[in-house]
Structure formats: C-alpha cells, structure tokens
Amino acid sequence: MSRPSLTRAALALLVLFLVPAVAMAAGMGTVTKVLRPQVHTFDDKGQPTGTLAAADLRVPAPIVAMGTGGSIGVNHDGKVVFLRGLDVQTEGLNATCKPVQTAARSSGSAYAATNMGLGGPADCKKP
Amino acid sequence: MIVVGRILKALLVSLLLAASAYAVAKLNLFGLEGESDRLADGVYQRITAADYGADRKGQRQISVVYLDETSMEAMKGYGWNRFPPTYDQQWTMYDDVMSSGGAPPAAIYADYVYTGQGGANEGFQTFLTGVAAATKAAAWQGAPGCQTDPLIKIACIEAAGGTPLIFAKPSPAELDIFTDVQRQLDAVAVLAPALVNVEAYPMITRYGFDAAKARRLGVHGFDVSPALAMYAAWCLRQADACGIAGFARVKAMAAGALAGKPVTSVDLTPTFNAPLDVVWGSRPDPAYLAVTAAVTGQPAPCRGAASGWLSRLGEQMAGLRGPAAGARQECPYALTLGYDRIVAGLGLQSSDLQRLLAGRLVFMGGQFRASNDWVESPVHGQAPGVHFHAMALDNLIEDGADYRRNANMMLDSDLLKSLLIAALAFCGVMGVMARNSLLDHATLTRMEPRLHPMVYAPLYLLIYGASIGVVFLATWFGVSFAHRAPINWIGISACVLGFLFYATRETLPADILGSIEHLSWVKHTMAALRLFRQHLKFEEDRLVTHRAPRPIPSVETPEAAPPAAEGGGNPQEAPVHVQT
Q1: What is the per-residue pLDDT across B471-511, written as a single tens digit (0 to 9) for each?
Q2: Confidence tier at B232 by pLDDT (50, 70, 90)
Q3: CB of B342 within 8 Å of any CB in chain A?
Q4: Across all residues in chain A, what is the average pLDDT?
Q5: What is residue B565's predicted lDDT score, i.e. its pLDDT?
Q6: pLDDT at A11 over 80
Q7: CB contact, 8 Å: B501 with chain A?
C-alpha cells in the first residue's frame, strides 16, 4: 500500500480553493479592455490610491470585487485595486443590476424627480 | 330705429362686461388673474404635450447630465468625499463629459454657479486650465473683438476649434458682485445669468449699465440666457446658421475677431424680441428609454409616449388630472443620465455614451432634493431647473425664431381678453334679443306664447356653442399661427358662459318648459316644485317674522297667503320676455 504523495494532496487542496474563487470571479464579470492610457485607482472605500498605466493592467482581468458606488475591483500586483467603470470595458457586469427605483417611489407622488434620471448605482442590488 | 337701439344696447352691455373684466384682470385680486393665466397655460400644455416635437429635432441634440444626492453618495467610491467636490474633481467630471463620448459635445452649459466664496479654491488652477484647453482660450482671449459680446465669444471659441463651455452666473441686475473666480472663468469661458423665479424665459438682457459698471460686473455688451447661448453655439455650427441673419453675421465676423480685428456687436433683439413661453413636451427620447432599460434592467417607470391629445383632454376633464400624478408621471423629455452612472458604467456601452455626449448640446446641473433649483412644469410637476433650460433650448431648435412668445410680456393681453369677452357677450345678447323677437312673432302669428324646440334649440346651441368655439379657436389660432402663449381660455370661457347663463336664466327654462309642459311627469314634477317653493316661501316668511315681527299679526298680507299653485293657474300665461 503506497502512501499518497504530499505534493498531490497539496495540489488537490489548492484546486479545491482556486476553482470556487475563479468561478466566483468569473460570475462578477471581466475587464476586457482599458480605455484610457492612464486610469485612476481607488481603495474599496473610495480613497484615491494613485494612477495606473493601462499597459500595467493585464486584460482580460476577472472582477473580484465591487466597491462603493459601483467601482470595479481587479487584482493587480497581489492586491485589489478599484477602477472606474468609465475607464474600462467590461463583460458580464450589468446582469447583476436590479433596480429598486419603482418600488421606492411612493404611490401617487407628484414628485417628478424620481423619474428625472436613473438614480445611482445604489439603486442596484446584487441578486 | 328700434333695431339700431337694440344693437346699441347690446353693445353697451357687452362693453360694460368687458370693462368689468378688464378692471378685474388689472386688479388681479388675490392673484386670481395670474393664477388663472397659469392654470390655462398649464392645462393647455398638458393636453397638447404629446404633440410637441414630433420630429424630435431638438431631442436628438440635447442631453442632461445631473448630480443629485444619490450621485454624491455613489461618487464617494471615487474620492468625492466632500460637498461641493474640489475644483479638480469637478474638472474630472467636465473632462469625462468632454471625452467619454468619443467626440466632444457641441457645447456644454453648466448650471452650477462658481463664485469661489465657499472657502479654499482647491484645485481651481487645474479646473481653469482644463476649461481653457477645452475652449481653446489661448486662441481668442487676447483678441478684443472676441470679447465684444457673448455671441461673438461663442463664435470665436468655435472658430478656434474649441467647445463652448457656458457657466451660470448670478444676474448682474440682482447681484452687484463679480468675484475673482468669476472673472477668471469669464476669461476662458462664457458666463450666462442663471434664472431665478422667472415666469417667462428671457432671451437677450440689456442692463443699461455705464461702461465702468459693465466692466466691473463682467458684462460684455449684453447677456444671453443659457438656452440662447446654447442655441447660438448650435446654429453657428450649421451651414445656414439656422436661417437667422444675425447668427450668419456673427459667424462671418469670428475669423476677423480671432485675427485681432475690431468687430461691432450684432443686434439680435429684433429676432429674439420677447421672452420664451417654454413649451414642455411629454414624449420621452427613445434613447432615454433604451439607456434606462440598459442600466436598470427594466423599462423606464413612466407614462407611455402614445397618449395623444384626445385622451389627455379626457383626462383633464376627469378626476385624474394634474401633472405628474402617481403612475402617470412623465419621463424627462431630454436624454438624461446621472454622472455617477456614467462613471460606474453599469449596463452602459460605448455607443450609449456616444449617443449621450458626442456632438450633443449637454446641460449639466444639480437636482438635489434639498436645493431650491426646481421649477414647476405643467407637464412633469416639479422638475429640476436644468430641465427648464434644456426644454427652452429644445423649443428654440424646434421653432427657431418663431418660438412661442410670452404674450403677457409683449402686449396688453388683458385688453385682448376683454375685447374677446365683449365680442362674445355682444353675440350672446344679440342671440337673446333674436329669441325674444321670435317669441313676439310666435305670439302674434300663432297666438302661442312659446317657441317650438326646432326654433329655440338651434338658437341656444348656436349661442353657447359658438361662444365656446370662438374661445377655443382664438386660443388655437394664437398658439399655432401667432406663436403666442395660450390666452386665458378657461377664464374667458367661464366669464362668457357665466354671462350667457345669466342672460338666459329665465328664457331658457321657460322655453324648455313651454315645450314639454303637456307631459304628465312634467306636470307632476312642476306641482312638486311648486309645493317645494311654497314651503320655502313659508320658511322664509317665518324667518323674517322672527327677526322683524309685523305690527298687526292678524292682517293677512298677500305674501302670507297661499300661492296660486293650488289654483292651478297656467304658468305660461304671459310669455317670459327678458332683455338683458
């Protein structure tokens, strides 16, 4: 009876951890293109963390997190940086948007502001 | 001679009525006249809103990008953690609007007033440099000719290849202050007075300042309203300058002004000689509906575009009237998107941003619930002020120099209304006189003191129908052909109908009763009514007696005696013959 190799067990464990992470990341969408030569980056709370050259960001990059106001989090140099959606092209991101705008409007309201635009990303909930 | 006397009498009555109406209008007691004017305009606009802008000529050019409380909350994710945002953050916003569509907008109006008096001007130099680059200020700010007036400045910006950026400023007529920040902004962009509490949208404002005061307050010849400035920016890009000779001359002068030649101001007052009566449309931009569906995942929660004037008229006559009520809320007329939505980009494609921004006339403004920059739209209810400017520009693009003028600002509209009332009252009195003559004729020839329904029905229909018809026709004619705000058709109709009801208060019931009195149910009803009147009469006497007892209670006065109803006297014995 041969003992199972430690390396193989470690690899299996790694796969067990990585597959759900990748699957989860793929479910949030992917950044496919950077639209500006240089993009601003933020942390998850929205504090500016500097700029990033487009060439430094490998695309396609899985989106690993959504920050405040709908900023898009991708891995870069071992940490998550948040980008503006305006600066990048994404795929599979808008499917998560569930508006609550209509429900939030009081019935019979003469307050036209509820229709004067589309609200903000705060109106979107993840399913 | 009798006929002439009757006509003169009718004329006198109608003139008296018109004079009373004129006096009431001028007195504007409790503001009723003004409110009545606004109501008439509002109801007219609600009925016809779906018919405005069928060709979507203006809608294809105009976009609105806004900030509100939700936007500010969302923008915290992008470093906007104070209010107002820093100048450099705001420049990032303008830069996004300039560059995200793939091509810059045709012009931008920012409905934000920058005075620089709120504290440290953090990042103002970045802001100013960005604006100067967008407007290509280096090419024109040294040319004195380009500073002649705002229209030539816009022409210079476009001739230099820049994008006109127009910023709001307080009206110099209301605020005798021109701050350093405003002066620096004026050197690289165009300033237009923001409108506060205006009833009609102004076009060109001349303040009559002397040269020193005009210089101190940054007035270059005259001021133009935001919508006119944007319209000029758009027309100056058109080959035919929108067919407006003044714009064509301004356009032709721009190259010379850029080259340093002196230019004289072009007087556009004859073309834009009256304030605009803003017409609000209700059919939303298809692009707005598409973008809303893309961003929110469901159709825009607003009224459908297909309801025409007939259904809207029915709605105004019913109990469900009023602007922006519940599920019947109107969508904004222009393509509208929150800036935070642009930044987050959720659901948006490049083509959406292109449609929103590239080559468009973009209005940027706030729609904060806590601010007072809201206007009363007859169609939308409360609408953000920036939509007022956008709608005014839409009117100009749709109608050009034939825009709907505010009649109240041009002529004595009260006089016009009174004359209309006089004419209608005259016709009404003549109609009643004709009825009396016909009754006289019937009495003489047929010995019958009543008119046949075939005679009086068309007559009354003509009197009432023609009066209402003339008011509606005058309203429609004034709006469609004279391009004026609708007259107070509700007030005039009420006045004329009230007068006609008064004038026919006895003849109309008498004529109708005279022709149906032989019916049994009418006889029963009449008997019941007589009893009822008798009862009322008794109660009246009792009340009067209580208050002022008669000196000799035993004496039966004719009033206290039972009326002749029980005797069954013929109520039509003598013909009812009333002359007003």
Answers
A1: 888 888 888 888 888 888 888 888 888 888 988 888 888 88
A2: very high
A3: yes
A4: 71
A5: 42
A6: no
A7: no
State whether B296 and A109 contact (CB < 8 Å).
Answer: no
What range defines the domain where residue A86 resides? 29-95
The encoded tokens of residue B366 equal 């706030």
Interface of B with A in 178-207 (CB under 8 A): none
Residue A102 lies in a domain: yes
Interface contact flag, A109 B326, Cβ < 8 Å: yes
More confident residue, B107 or B38: B107
Q: How many domains does chain A have?
A: 2
Q: Do B96 and A86 touch (CB under 8 A)?
A: yes
Contact status of B89 with chain A (Cβ, < 8 Å): no
Q: Give the model confidence (pLDDT) of B327-379 as tens digits.
A: 557 788 999 988 988 898 877 888 888 999 999 999 999 988 788 888 888 88
Give the minimum alpha-carbon distance from A41 to chain B in angstroms, rounded to a whole number.
8
Count: domains in chain B = 1
What global pTM score does this model have? 0.81
Range of the domain at B34: 1-51+413-580
| CB-based contact B326 A114, cutoff 8 Å | no
Of A67, A82, A115, the CB nearest to B301: A115
With an 8 Å Cβ cutoff, are A86 and B350 in contact?
no
Q: Give the angle B338-B63-B91 at the CA atoms, nearest 5°.
A: 60
Spatial neighbors of B473 by CB under 8 A, at least 6 apart, are none
CA B321 to chain centre: 17
Query: Is A19 inside any structural domain?
Result: no
Backbone φ and ψ of B192, nearest 5°: -130, 140
Amino acid at A94: N
A118:B292 CB<8 A: yes
**Is residue B481 one of the residues assigned to a domain?**
yes
Q: Which residues of B touch A116 (CB under 8 A)?
A: 66, 332, 336, 367, 380, 383-384, 387
A43 is a domain residue: yes
Q: Based on the domain organization, do A103 and A47 belong to the same domain?
A: no
Q: Find chain B residues with C-beta within 8 A of A70's C-beta.
A: 74, 77, 340, 343-346
Q: Cβ contact (<8 Å) for A42 and B384?
A: no
Shared domain for A43 and A69, answered yes or no, is yes
pLDDT confidence bin for B548, thresholds 50/70/90: low
Kindly report which listed range (B127-136, B267-276, B482-491, B547-556) carries the lowest average pLDDT score: B547-556
CATH number of the domain residue A49 falls in: 2.30.30
> Is residue B315 in some structural domain?
no
Strand partners, A83: A41, A72
A79 and A40 fall within a common domain: yes
ipTM higher than 0.85? no
Q: How many whole angstroms separate alpha carbon B324 and alpha carbon B318?
A: 15
- Verify that A85 and A127 share a domain, yes or no: no
Eight-state DSSP code of residue B361:
E
CA atoms of B160 and B189, how far apart (whole Å): 13
Q: What are the angstrom distances between the C-alpha of B211 and each of B185, B218, B247, B253?
A: 20, 10, 25, 23
CA distance A7 to chain B (A): 43
For residue B165, the cross-strand partners are: B108
**B252 lies in some domain:** no
φ, ψ at B28 (rounded to 5°): 45, 50
Same domain assignment for residues A88 and A44: yes
Any domain includes B215 = no
Of residues B421 and B548, more confidently modeled? B421
